[in-house]
Amino acid sequence: MTSIASSRREQVSRVLQQHGALMVLAMLVIVGSLTFDSFATAGNAASVVVSSSFLAVIAIGMTFVIISGGIDLSVGSLFVLGGVLAAYGSQYGLLMALALPLGACGVVGLLQGLVIARTGMAPFIVTLAGLLGVRGLMLAISDEGATTYLVKNPAFASLGQGELLGLTYPVYITAALALVAMVLLQRTGFGQNVYAIGGNEQAAALMGVPVARTKVAVYVMSALLAGLAGALNAARLSSGVTILGIGLELDAIAAVVIGGTLLTGGAGGITGTVAGVLLLGVIQSLINQVGNLTSAFQQVVSGAFLALVVVAQRLLSKAQRLS
Fold this sequence. Notes:
The protein is mainly α and 323 residues long. It is built from 13 helices and 2 strands; from the N terminus they run H-H-H-H-H-H-E-E-H-H-H-H-H-H-H. A two-stranded antiparallel sheet has the order 1-2. Strand 1 and strand 2 (167-168) form a beta hairpin. Helix 3 (75-89) packs antiparallel against helix 4 (94-119), helix 4 (94-119) packs antiparallel against helix 5 (123-141) and helix 12 packs antiparallel against helix 13. It is globular, with a radius of gyration of 20 Å. The mean pLDDT is 84. Pfam families: BPD_transp_2.
């Protein structure tokens, strides 16, 4: 009986850790629908999904990084750099508008991954340097932010502004990326390597897991997705706005952790991350519905919720060890 009860507690703990954000999201949607007439409308739902799609793209890459036991603080700056380079490159056509930001951001991710994997430096320090360096590069390209490049290619602009069934194209791109990431993380050897490294890097190396190569790959992936999100946002706004992205890396980390991915690595998933992103979007929508609360209040709520999630993860992990 004791072993059965212990097994059940472990199963419940695992379900809460993996799907807790989805449960809370469903609860908030129900409460919001019952409280505010304008909340449960197609227009509001579309607004939440569309506004969350860009953060979701970044958070997908961040999920791989955190599961591997790392952190990437440079994604906010890469998001802005991607937008500026995409707008600049759009004058040379759609291909250049995508290739330029992806190429530049990919190189940054490659350099960060190599430094982290080959030297053993802390990801926090390396990506913090990346955050500062990339933002400085963006300011140099945009003349200290004085120059705003406009999107001049209609095909590229339609990539961010075009709609299908009431949702913009970035939503469908995000959904496709999430599906690919799920398969990559759960059904491939690369995904299993990511989990193994995050769970115990030394043990993974002894088992023959290519630790350095996997680490480099996750940081390149994170940088590419941040650059892509910036490019799509530039297409939506028809310009490479230089004042965006401040604190975006913290939003991405919050969404990933709220979605059930452990900050210590070794556990997590894309479904939880998407739920975490939508949860932050729904919280913002509910605050907007109230009307007399500012966006700063959303940061307070998100921060408090993140703290609760981290404490809950700690308790659930302890419960699993005891069982």
